[in-house]
Sequence to fold (452 residues):
Amino acid sequence: MNKPAHLDMAAWEPTPNNLEAFFMGFTPNAAFKKRPRLIARAKDMHYYDMKGRALIDASAGLWCSNAGHCRQPIIQAIQKQAAELDFAPTFQYGHPKIFELASRLAMLAPGNLDYAFFTNSGSEAGDTALKIALAFHRSRGEASRTRMIGRERGYHGVGFGGISVGGIVKNRMFFGPLINGVDHLPHTHSLEHNAYTQGQPEWGAHLADELERIAALHDPSTIAAVIVEPVAGSTGVLIPPKGYLKRLREICDKHGFLLIFDEVITGFGRLGTGFGSEYFDVEPDMITCAKGLTNGVIPMGAVICRKGMYDAFTDWADETGNTIELFHGYTYSGHPVAAAAGLATLEVYKEERLFERATDLAPYWQAAVHGLKGTRHVIDLRNLGLIAGIELESRPGKPGQRAYEAFRRCFDKGVLIRVTGDIIALSPPLIIEKTEIDRIFETLHDVLTNLD
Ligand SMILES: Cc1ncc(COP(=O)(O)O)c(C=O)c1O
Fold:
């Protein structure tokens, strides 16, 4: 046998300029490693590359940094927490900050969504919500309810549950048969009916009625839950048609399906409200969230569920009080440092009134987005809150290539955007100034005008 690697002291030496060993996800590894975009630091609205060049962040990292980057109150909170209590389990133990964060989330969430289960990511929150749905029905004696209904072009992370209910072909096709008993609603995106809509489109509420068709096909007694993003982000900013989400709620109520809103991107002020469900005035049975929960500083996600659901679990438990209600959880569920980051983040949102700020800026943002109308290659513009989708005509036979090139050129010009297929998705930190909005759209106009 060869000498174990750890006994070779050279193995412990850092190799700072070797990009090879990191197997990057959702990235063309070879192309990236040939021409890397390395980010060295960040502050407020900007990233800085290795040479100190500033990049304005038009996508809050990955829909994460709603309060901007490297905010002092959050940094101080996590430093203090790490020195005070670095880790404590939340199985059979607890620590005060995680209970405090759960209470704060329950206050922020609409209606009687009063109980928070913690995860480490949006993906884990998605899979957790699906498992809670199954266990909930079973605990009430409706074990036949096992089917999950997702939606085409939906994204609920990368766990097996999430990719099964999700509707992104590439995220599904490599990974076998996925979980059984899943069906999908049609997506609501239609350039034919809704191109260049400002805010929510008029056309498309009737697409929610497809849930009736799916219910009839499988029989409602087999369906556990319906999961959708109120605004689908990852597949290119698909804004729900007016009345669509309400209609889904009505059909779920009629048949006893749980409605799960994946609010990983619509949570924490993106639409000017704590959660998108408040913005759309539709109360789901569960909300999944992550990202803006800790401003992206420490990984954390959560499932917030309705009081009646929690009660069903505790009612089911036996009278000794020793029954474990839910056989699920992660070592890092409710990690103390993430809890401290979450509490400090909510405090920043509150103190700086960032959700109201998003509402105030939304009309200016909308005007800036639609100011791109007529720009070369643009075939649709859409917006809601501080979100924008800019859809480009694809190059024949080369989908995604044009937007990817726009992405690279924007980076070269000091603007960090996000692209998915041939759609540019924008979601800046809520601290953005109007002059910075102008700068982003001027750069985009310039880049698109000069792009083949
Ligand atoms: C709507 C939605 N759900 C789930 C996820 C997955 O979150 P994570 O990457 O933290 O697992 C994302 C990530 O972008 C998302 O946008």
